[in-house]
C-alpha cells in the first residue's frame, strides 16, 4: 500500500539519534536528528501523533508519497518516513535559518527589493508544486523557513499538504490561521491552487508594512473582511511604497478566483520579474 519504508520505531532509532526539539505545531513536534551511520549529519524529524489524525492515516500516506516526489531548491525535502503504533516520523532536510515570522518581527518590515526577492522564491516553489498537482493550503510566515542564518539565505517552504489532514477540514484550517485564508475557503466553496496565491498576497502585504491586511480581534468580523476582500493601503505606512507593489498585491488578494493571478502570472508581474523600467522599451 505504498508504505514500503514505513516500518517500526526501532528502525528510526537504528538510523537516527533523536535530539532536541526544533519546533512544535498543531499536531506534531519537530526534533533534530543525527544520522547514526554518518555522525555529524543532521536532519529534522517531524513526529506526528497518529491520534491527531483520527483515522486519516491513509490520506497522510498518500500525501507523503506526493511530497517525496517534490524536489525543489525552495522546498524542504522529505527524505524518508517511518512509523510505529502511535507515531509517524518524517525525516526532512534540516534548515537552520529560523522562521520568516521571526525575521519580520525582528526587522519590522522588508524593503521592496528584499520582499520581491523573497516572494519570487516562494512563487517559484509554489508554482512547481501546483504543476505537480499539490496545493499547500497553509502558507504563512511560520511555514516559511530560512535555509541558513545568513542574511542572504534562500527561503524554504515547509509543512505542506499536511493541513488537509486536520480534523474539521475547512474550519480547522480557517480557525488555525484565519488571516491568511482565502475567501472561497471561508465560504466553504470548492477551492484549489488559487488559495495559495491569496496567502502569498497576504504575506507580501505583511512584508511591506509589517502588519496584516485583514485584522479584527473578533473572528466573525475578520471573516467578513476577508469574504469582501476589504483591505487598504493605509497612510502613512504605504505612502512610500510603489504603485507596482500595490498593483501586484491587488491581483493576489483578489476575491474573484477567476481574476486572481496564477503563480505564473504573479511571476511575470513587473514587481517580481524586475521588468519595471525596461519593459517600456522592449517592443
Ligand atoms: P506543523 O504542521 O505542526 O505546524 P511544521 O512543519 O510547521 O509543523 O513545523 C513546526 C516548526 O518546526 C516550524 O515552524 C519550524 O520552526 C520547525 N521546523 C519544521 N521543519 C523544520 C526543518 N526542516 N528544519 C528546521 N526546523 C523545522
Ligand atoms: Mg506549521
UniProtKB/TrEMBL annotation:
Protein residues bound to ATP: 46
A GO molecular function held by the record: ATP binding
Annotated catalysed reactions: L-threonyl-[protein] + ATP = O-phospho-L-threonyl-[protein] + ADP + H(+); L-seryl-[protein] + ATP = O-phospho-L-seryl-[protein] + ADP + H(+)
Domain Protein kinase: 16-272
EC number of this enzyme: 2.7.11.17
Record keyword Kinase present: yes
Residues making up the signal peptide according to the UniProt record: none
UniProt keywords, alphabetically: Allosteric enzyme, ATP-binding, Calmodulin-binding, Kinase, Nucleotide-binding, Serine/threonine-protein kinase, Transferase
Similarity-based family: Belongs to the protein kinase superfamily. CAMK Ser/Thr protein kinase family. CaMK subfamily.
Protein name per Swiss-Prot or TrEMBL: Calcium/calmodulin-dependent protein kinase type 1
Organism: Dendroctonus ponderosae (Mountain pine beetle)
